Amino acid sequence: MTRKSRRLVLIGAGLGVLALAAGLILTALNDTIVFFRTPTEVAQQQFAPGSRLRLGGLVEPGSVAKTGTAVRFSVTDGNAQVTVAYTGILPDLFREGQGVVAEGVLQSDGTVKADSVLAKHDERYMPREVADALKKSGHWKEGEEGGPTPPPPPAKAAPPKPAASAPVPGLPPVTPAAAPAVRSSAQ
Amino acid sequence: MGLLNLANPTRFVWLSDRLLPWLSGAAVLVLGAGLVLAFQAPPDYQQGETVRIMYIHVPFAWLSMFGYSLMAVSSLGILAWRHPLADVAHKALAPIGATFTCLCLITGALWGRPMWGTYWVWDARLTSVLVLFLLYLGVMALRAAIDDPNRAGRAAAVLTLVGFINVPIVKFSVDWWNTLHQPASVFRMGGSTIAPSLLWPLLVCATGFTLLFLALHMLAMRTEILRRRVQALEARAAAQAGL
After folding, report:
1. What count of Cα atoms within 13 Å lies in the side-chain half-sphere of residue B201?
2. Cα–Cα distance between B61 and B173 in angstroms, integer?
3. Which is nearest to B67 in space by CA: B99, B103, B114?
């Protein structure tokens, strides 16, 4: 073994140990690194009223009620809904069926009093005509149809190409209910 | 080893003299064409005209990770092979990569404000890209803090390799955790989710920015080699004057 290859092996081993350490840390911190909670998680984890949280999901169609600048709407991930009350200016992308992240305080009645509402957009980009054509031909996947069924259905046909939401092998798993809802089927 | 022996600084300066005009010309042409195509592309069904920020934001993001990966490869060259050209390549990469990462953060903030409703959030993707930017700055600072150039290069190389852990985190942050940033659109399993009419201008822009990155890097490496020669000549002249 030459000195060069010995150095390479040393560097490789060092990096391997580092990667392992980083992987363990990130897996341990998984719960705090996620940006938002889904309505299902909020329902399951029994957050105490008064705790601050970010709630992510789709705006349930038909649930938006506006009175002046005050707005109430439901955030859904297909399994559970949480009602959000917010006063202020909504982002331009805010609409029914849209992915949103609302940050605020959980009230004792189970609703969230939000002080900020952010819009999420998904990874799909296309001209309006293409989107219209897809909707017309029935190839459009509405946000709430796909649903956050854990595990996600194998073939999630998201236009223009099938969105394989299968996790990358060898990576830490995502919280089952969290990901698919807003990931591949939000619009 | 044959290829490594070819890659000595003198040969590199000779090669860069011939390649640089072509590389720069190609970068200007492709980038110009890409920007024209970017403005001719149709607006997005949801984001409208704002989607055009993608045509510069995404290439900056890709190249920030590409630059760091190149820097990690150069670090191996420094630590395992002790190759002088690897040290030159490493030193030249850091400021260019830092600039591209900074531009990625700025264009991302300008895109986030109209679309998400905020310039910045501490989600996994945005935070890990900020860490990437700070790593570039840290590598530059460490190199500047050590006087002996050989030791400075080795220390910077070690820091670069340690920080390389962050590159897969940047890439997969949107898959491992839920984030405000949307998941990958182009390099993902199952193919791209960008309609062809919007994707092509992006690929042309990305190619143009990559050529620009490579041209800047080659120029910076060449400058660094010449700077070291000047320093060596000055040191020799000073030694002779002292005799």
Report:
1. 24
2. 14
3. B99
Task: Write out pLDDT tens, residues A71-110.
Answer: 999 999 888 899 999 998 888 888 888 899 999 999 888 8
For residues B198 and B40, is the Cβ–Cβ distance under 8 A?
Answer: no
Rounded CA separation A115/A68 (Å): 16
- CB contact at 8 A, B19 and B218: yes
Residues of A in contact with B77 (CB under 8 A): none
ipTM of the complex: 0.77
User: Domain spans of chain B?
Assistant: 24-39+49-177+196-242
The closest CB to that of B182, out of A26, A122, A126, belongs to A122
d(C-alpha B243, C-alpha B238), whole Å: 9
Determine, for residues B161 and A11 on separate chains, whether the beta-carbon distance falls below 8 Å: yes
Range of A155-164, B157-166, B186-195 with top mean pLDDT: B157-166
Closest of A94, A84, A122, A171 to residue B177, by C-alpha = A171
Q: According to the model, what pLDDT value does residue B88 have?
A: 95
Q: What is the mean pLDDT of residues B138-160?
A: 95
Chain B positions touching A90 (Cβ under 8 A) are: 117
Q: Model confidence over A106-138: pLDDT tens digits? A: 988 888 999 999 999 888 888 888 888 888 877
The reply to whether B179 touches chain A by the CB within 8 Å rule is yes
Distance CA A87, CA B125 (A): 28
Cα Rg of chain B (Å, integer): 20
Radius of gyration (C-alpha) of chain A in whole angstroms: 21
Q: Which residues pair with A85 in a beta bridge?
A: A72, A113
The three-class DSSP label of residue B154 is helix
Distance CA A140, CA B221 (A): 50
| CA distance between the termini of chain B | 40
